[in-house]
Design brief:
Distance between the termini: 39 Å
CATH topology of the largest domain: Jelly Rolls
Shape: elongated
Number of helices: 8
CATH class of the largest domain: Mainly Beta
Number of domains: 2
Structural class: alpha+beta
Strand content: 15-25%
DNA sequence: GCATTAATTGGTC
DNA sequence: GACCAATTAATGC
């Protein structure tokens, strides 16, 4: 799964947390220690409960992170793309990954070991400060998700997911630019595949969305948004 | 082209 | 709203 290093300085990924701090001279010695990992679609590169082996930064591609519940049912916790960080929740206490991670398409990852991360945190204060803000932001998002799952019905949760991936991944040729199976849509919305499919068919009948194969396109963003307005989408 | 997997729909509890 | 079954569509080999 390993390949030669991508060079951070010439990396095209402007969203990257590392890239944003490259102007700091102290970063130079650390970025040479990263390991690149290349995953094919549906490869699992983090196992829930496995010992931490550093943080992953997505260089290119898309990844889902999941928590497994009883009866093997999975809850998708996050959907991530290039520039996002994976594995950070288990960081600090440092022992185990708290989530599993799968590539949703062919993906290139940059892996920084626990030791390297700790060194960066101790020596590059601007980086540490920004990461702190990042954690605060993520905590807020998690709490919003708790509220959503608690207060929204199935239809609202599916609509919320559609608007979310629409905003995060954008649409190409009128279709949202991410491949999710119906099962994965259900795993994110906290319901079953059949329920998710029913909601999608209804939305299609109402001409709010369209679908080509597994890809979904949103036809009426404002109408969908108004459906979940009362849940304070923004 | 055949076989396995995913998507869809209808029905029951 | 979950679970099961049957049918159909899609995809891998």
């Amino acid at each position: 799964m390993k390949e030669e290093q991508t060079i951070c300085y010439s990396c095209a990924n402007e969203n990257c947390f590392i890239k944003k701090h490259l102007h700091l001279a102290e970063m130079e010695s650390f970025i040479s220690k990263k390991q690149n990992v290349v995953c094919k679609k549906s490869d699992q590169f983090i196992t829930e409960g496995a010992p931490m082996q550093g943080l992953y930064f997505i260089c290119k591609g898309k990844v889902k992170t999941v928590k497994t519940g009883i009866h093997g049912r999975e809850q998708i916790v996050r959907l991530t793309k290039n520039g996002d960080i994976i594995g950070f929740r288990g960081f600090g206490t440092g022992k185990k990954y708290l989530i599993g991670a799968y590539a949703l398409e062919d993906t290139v990852l940059c892996n920084f070991s626990n030791e390297t991360m700790l060194e960066i945190l101790q020596h590059v204060h601007e980086f540490t400060y920004d990461l702190m803000l990042f954690y605060a932001d993520e905590l807020n998002k998690s709490e919003n998700n708790i509220r959503k799952i608690a207060h929204m019905n199935v239809r609202e949760r599916v609509v919320d997911l559609l608007l979310y991936i629409h905003r995060k991944f954008g649409q190409v040729d009128g279709l949202i630019d991410i491949d999710l199976s119906r099962k994965e849509i259900a795993d994110f919305a906290g319901t079953t595949e059949e329920q998710a499919i029913r909601v999608l068919s209804n939305l299609k009948k109402e001409a709010l969305i369209k679908s080509v194969g597994k890809r979904i396109g949103i036809l009426n963003v404002s109408e969908l948004r108004s459906e979940i307005m009362e849940h304070k989408y923004f």
